[in-house]
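[job 4417] fold queue: 2 targets
>>> target A
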Amino acid sequence: MTDRVLLVEDEASLARGVADYLRHAGYDVQHVARGDAAFDAVRTLQPDLIVLDIMLPARSGLDVLRDVREAGIAVPVLILTAKGDVVDRVRGLELGADDYVPKPFSLRELLARVRALLRRARQETRPAPDRLVLGEVTFDFRALTATGPTAAVLTSRDVLVLRILAARRGEIVTRLDIIEEACGLDSESTLRTVDNHVVALRRAIGDDPRRPRFLHTVRGEGYRLSLPEV
């Protein structure tokens, strides 16, 4: 199912660039240019995430955010603030924003934060199990350890990668998403690093990459963990 993003931004060129970039990344993006139209759009569209500018015509983004939270709507909100405007940033977080990006920003950073907020929202509703057994290996996701006759080849980072996949079991998880969650946005890890973690996991659990039972490669996209509901 495609995540729906509501973009509330009055600067036309910026809104067009953000919307096109997020659509290219696979999101369903709806755009509203005025603050006084934003709350009705939230109720009508029921977005999975809101990207909300603070400076809007007719009604400020902070007022919109207040309306959303007072209505009991728990959708993740990413606010766009002016560079160096600490007051709006702090006020937005106090009103219930989940994250912020100061202008000007890179589209890549914005996409990373959108992905992180959506991922966090999914994990809150469907957390990874505390414990998982694959093949002859038992994984403890709280301690990030693995035990079993073939577990010695695994590192805590290998187990963390499996925990990320387990939290989104049945879904395709991109390698970039895995890097961002396992290593952080500033990590120097590469996409090949993720592949190496998956190789180690497959070796430990005895999963044949040509006929996998658990760890499936989705060519050009990422990985998917298949297992019975736990």
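>>> target B
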Amino acid sequence: MQPPIALTIAGSDPSGGAGLQADLKTFHRFGCYGTSVVTLVTAQNTRGVTMVEALSTALVLAQLHAVFDDLPPAALKTGAIGSAALITAVAAFLRERRAPRLVLDPVMISKHGHRLLPDDAVAAMVAQLLPLAAVVTPNWHEAAALSGLPVHDPASARAAALTLCARGASAVLIKGGAGTDGLSVDLLVDSEGELELPALRLATTATHGTGCTFAAALTAHLALGHALRPSALRAKAFIHHAIASAPALGSGVGPVNHWA
């Protein structure tokens, strides 16, 4: 039996902890055939980002045509795209191809605090990509930027999720919420209502690429044909174990265990 194909449209992380490298590792972990479209190249490691350079729109579109013409994905995700012009071009392509099951991971700031998305690109993402998404997976900071609402507690996260649904997202999964009793509680809002995804908060510095890896696991399960809610629950369990069993690599914010 042929494995399902999953696609990541994202930036490159040479240290392998985040970006398309993390996505491809995660796709493979769940038995999907991973394909990738590179949008930007970074120079980074566990200690920080030193340089970011975006690829041309023509080259990104050529990659998209190459993948869709020969290896059409069953599900796909976006990561760092980098500019309003590139977001608009990618969104137009995905609309034309009626791309299935898009997980929109709105990568705006690296784990080291390096800004990856200017303000006009945030507006383009809301207008162009959000309505195409089966689910958007922001953290609290990204949810605030996308919704225009302050997000500082579970109630405000819920308000931001509902706002993003009203703006066209089919579902919103806000990551990284602080719950009670030492829990980290993600919130999924979809057509069925609300679902909390709790896990014990872990004291660790191995958090490089957690957002990418979580969204990639979600994409992989959607590519495998699972519904959104079970996919979200499985992705949450995976990323928790991936953080808990992270290897001791690098001297800064280390990567998770992509084979967890």
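[job 4417] complete. Note on B: The radius of gyration is 17 Å.
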